[in-house]
Amino acid sequence: MTYRNRRPRRAAHATDVVVLGAGPAGLVLGNILLDRGIDCVVLERAERTHVQTRARAGFLAANTVRILTRNGLAGGLHRRGQIHSTCEFRTEDGRFRLDYSGLGPRERHTVYPQQELVTDLLTQFLERGGRIRFGTEAVTVRDADTARPEVAVREADGRPGTWRARYVAGCDGRHGAARRSLPARAVRHHRDHGVTWLGLLAEAPPSLDAVGYAVHERGFAGHMARTSKVTRYYLQCERGTPADTWSEERIWDELELRMRTREYGPLRRGRVVQRSVLDLESDVLEPLRHGALFLVGDAAGLISPSAAKGANLAVLEAEILAHALIDDLTAGDPEGLDAYSARCLTHIWRAQEFSHWMIGLLHGPSGADGESLFHNSLRRSRLASLRTSRTKQDWFAEHYVGV
Ligand code: RFL
User: Fold this and answer.
1) pLDDT digits (tens, 9 = 90+) for 124-177
2) Ligand 1: does its nearest atom lie under 6 Å from the Cβ of 276?
3) CATH numbers and ranges of domains, the chain
4) Beta carbons of 196 and 280 less than 8 angstroms apart
């Protein structure tokens, strides 16, 4: 028997914590661990440029900014982020604005594109001496119920490899390896809200100095600033609509119609540079810990973007897990790890509840049957109480800007 043509088998790498995924969750976690001297590695399926240019979230809650600031991760967002504290609703019953900086907890959003935040987190991680493997896909997490779990990976050159660790943090989103590796006892709560959005990124300055929510018989339309030159828009569309069906002209015409620009002023048009179709879904896993494997961010709970909570929850959960891991690995105190799942699920379900409420506020069935008419009357009443009741506005502000 000859072994001459056989590639040598790769030895398993070892570290304290393997972090799967270099999104906001994985990079916040990696940065905090590294800062406290915990050995870790981040495995990321995509290439670096892809990670740094993936435009998604933009609205960071005040608590997210506090977390990033106290961990030395907020330099960029303090320099370039923009403060936002107003949203405007446009409906068949008129228009009203809520300045939530004067309501509820009196807090504001910082608008900072997710790809810029991720770039800052990555830069900081590398400057701190962090190890990150781009182009390395986690395939499965094995032996999570032991003290020596393993992550099987496909390395950048296509060859299989293995990482051993004390703990594995699954920050690899909804379709990642962490979710795929869960035991059968994991409970999945899934809800399809039956609503689809065409998500658009336009090279156009914002048209409003507020988040715009337009409720229209043709469907929802949304306006969210990103930078002084880029704006995110959403258009509710039929389920199954391919992202490229609508011409740019049709997109802008539809946005103008639903946002009632004849009454409230035109939109600033520009080139549509990104489009994606989003089926609004919620998907929460319970528990968030399986032995040595922890779920964080979108891997733990997917939330519809209707209330802009996903990235904020990811950052919050990453900080909670980071401190729990530090306590365990440096002081042998497992309490934080034991409490991680219950603690994060409390935040996740609060956010889900608000997001669900927002979906009901912004969308109505278009039919003229009794059920649709009932639902639409409820929605109008909900909007009316938001317009007129200070108590409702305080409640809204608390949930809208908080996590
Ligand atoms: P991410 O950002 O998806 O990162 C996961 C990373 O894991 C990698 N990966 C793997 N790596 C190794 N092995 C594997 N097997 C892997 N599988 C995946 C991926 O390449 C990726 O780099 O998850 P994370 O860190 O949990 O962060 C979650 C947020 O990205 C997400 O919740 C938000 O973007 C949601 N969201 C918003 N959230 C907000 O808080 N405010 C907003 O304004 C907001 N707007 C949005 C949004 C999401 C959107 N889309 C596209 C769904 C707007 C949109 C359009």
Assistant:
1) 999 999 999 999 999 999 999 999 999 999 999 999 999 999 999 999 999 999
2) yes
3) 2-189+282-356 (3.50.50.60)
4) yes
